[in-house]
Every structure is written in C-alpha cells, then in structure tokens.
Amino acid sequence: MSGGIDSTVTAMLMHEQGYEVIGITMKTWDYASSGGSKKETGCCSLDSINDARKVAVDMGFHHFIVDIREEFGDYVIDNFVDEYLAGRTPNPCVLCNTHIKWNSLLKRADALDCEFIATGHYAIINEHEGRKFISKAVDPTKDQSYVLWGLSQECLQRSHFPLGKFTKQEVRQMAFERGYTELAKKAESYEICFVPDNDYRSFLKRRVPGLEAEVAGGKFVNTRGEVIGEHKGYPFYTIGQRKGLGMAFGQPMFVTEIRPESNTVVLGTEDELIRNSMKVGKVNLMKYAEVADGLEVVTKVRYRDNGTYSLLHPIDQGVEVEFLANVKGIAPGQSAVFYEGDDVVGGGIIHGSAFQ
C-alpha cells in the first residue's frame, strides 16, 4: 500500500470480497540520501505512509511498514547507475518489480501466513495450459503489463490485480463513493521514485562523485566515424535523444549509438535510427514454456511504444526479434515485451540491434 488511490482501492476490494487483508507499505527510498534538496514526495513520503495506515485503521485491518531501502538501493539503484555507465538505458521499475517488490512481499506474506499478495497494478492475470500470464488491462491509458514481464510463475500464482478490469475513472469513483474524496483527487507521480525531479543526469553526478569531470570532453561522431563535436560525457545521453545535445548541426541529429569504452556518442539522422532486428537476453516466458521459431508477436521496445509486428527466433541466451516494419530508437538496457493480442508472451532486456 503506497498511500495512493490504486493500492487503497485494491485493499478495499479485497476486503469487501471477504479476504483477510494485511496492509504492507514498503519504504524503498528517501530522497535526502541522494544528495538532492527537493521535498520528499510519492510512495515513500511520510504523508503517503500515513495515508496508507489511515485506510487500514478505517477498514480494521493490520498495517505494517517494511524498510527495504538497503536491498532496494543495493540492487535497483546500483544497477541503474551501472547501466548508464555501461552506455545502456535501464528500466528500474521492471527490475524493482521482478527482483525486489515481489520477493520482499512474498517473504513477508509467508511470515504472516498470507496465501496471496495483491497490488494496485493495472493488469490482468490469465492462464494457458497451466501457466499463468499477464494480459493488458481494460484501461489502455493505465495498462502496466509492460513493466510486469519479469514476474515468475511462482509470483503470478500468488498474485491478484483487482484493478485490471476497471478504468481509472471507475477506480476514482469507487474511492469517492467510499468517502475518500481527497484520495480520489490525489495527483499521480510518473517519475522514477528515487529520481523525483526526473533529472537522472544530476542524480548520476550526485551518486558518482567526480563523474562529470571524468567523462567530460568526449567526442560526437557521425555514423561514418567523423568527429563533429564535443559532448559532456557519454552517460548523460540516451539512444534516440535529439534535444539537449548542446550543438547545432544544420539538421536534426539523434543519438544512434553510445560507446562507453571510448567516451564516444554517435549521432545520425532520423533515418539512421532505423533498425529491423535486435537481440534480447534475460528472457522470461509467461504464456508458453518455450518460444517456437517464427512465432509472430507484437513487440514493444519502450513503455509508451505502440508495438511492432515481429517474428521471434530462439538463439543462445535469448531470442532474436525480426521486425516486420522498421523501428526507431532501440536502446540497449530497455525492456522488450512480446504480445499476442492482449497477452504477454514474455519479455527480456534489449542487448543490441542490427542496422537496416
């Protein structure tokens, strides 16, 4: 329970369905420890924790606060920094869901003799030939299936997502009808929880003292290898980036490749961002136990991506994705998620891509 509307309504629904509910609020992060000065907001703030506790008191169930800042920081935040220093673009929410939140929740669930865990994610759990898998939520504007691809069969067997079959407006209405009028109006945060100012570059500088000076003076090169300028350091750029390059080139230029070993950032035209295949590792399959060669899916390469028709080809340590239309801005380190209709076949981490 984060103290927000989604987890609150989830608790309400489970309580009304007759489940014995125990509320858990996880303290994952405090902004002060990053060296920032912004007032703490979001799921880990004292106000949010108090909001979660109030709901538990109102409905008469137990509520616990679990401090997982150390394990969260060691795994999610360290990985976030390491990935940028390796020239990749991480997705910490996927990592947190897969390796921290569910593991921590299941551990506490076992200690409290709880059979299931329920969260406020907008997704639906379905079953195919004995395997659990995620499907898209009814509300396409809130669907979170993309960030849940890493959940294991064990996690899915014990999870409930009550909100998946409702729209956000319906969820707000449920909170309003139950007397939580302020909660129904509460603003939502779409930022990474430990980067609440949404400025990952400043976060990296605070987290790695001396980084800015160490990587300054790197070269921009074009796709032919010609030096066309100087940049502020390769960790501060992402694939597909156009704005904030700090130079004018006479035409729109985009980051097409990052080479950390030489502190080089490759720039190209929009057409030079196009790829027609990529390799994906650390694959977690949901709907099927294995991928048939040539399986046709729709592949999303980022959260807000509409997806592209693709063919999957199993390879050592993952799959190769053959796109049936050109795709731009494929960033190593991001998640690729494979869909059949609304169903998640599986997902993995993008390793690299091939030129058209």
Record keyword descriptors for this entry.
alpha+beta, Rossmann fold, 356 residues, 27% helix, SH3 type barrels
Protein model, in words:
- It is a single chain.
- The protein is of the alpha+beta class and 356 residues long.
- Among the domains are: 5-120 and 161-185, HUPs (Rossmann fold, 3-Layer(aba) Sandwich), CATH 3.40.50.620; 210-268, Adenine nucleotide alpha hydrolases-like domains (SH3 type barrels, Roll), CATH 2.30.30.280.
- The protein has 9 helices and 16 strands.
- The chain has a 6-stranded antiparallel beta barrel. The protein has a 4-stranded mixed β-sheet with strand order 8-7-10-9, with no helix packed on it. A two-stranded parallel sheet has the order 1-2.
- It starts with a helix and ends with a strand.
At CATH level 3, the topology of the domain at 5-120 and 161-185 is Rossmann fold
At the fourth level of CATH, the homologous superfamily of the domain at 5-120 and 161-185 is HUPs
Intertermini distance: 46 Å
The count of β-strands is: 16
**How many DSSP helices?**
9
- What percentage of the residues does DSSP assign to strands (E)? 25-35%
Going by CATH, the architecture of the domain at 5-120 and 161-185 would be 3-Layer(aba) Sandwich
> What structural category arises from helix and sheet content?
alpha+beta
Sheet with most strands: strand arrangement: 11-14-13-12-15-16
Low-confidence stretches at least 5 residues in length (pLDDT < 50)? none
In one word, what is the shape?
Answer: globular
Q: Mean of residue pLDDT? A: 91
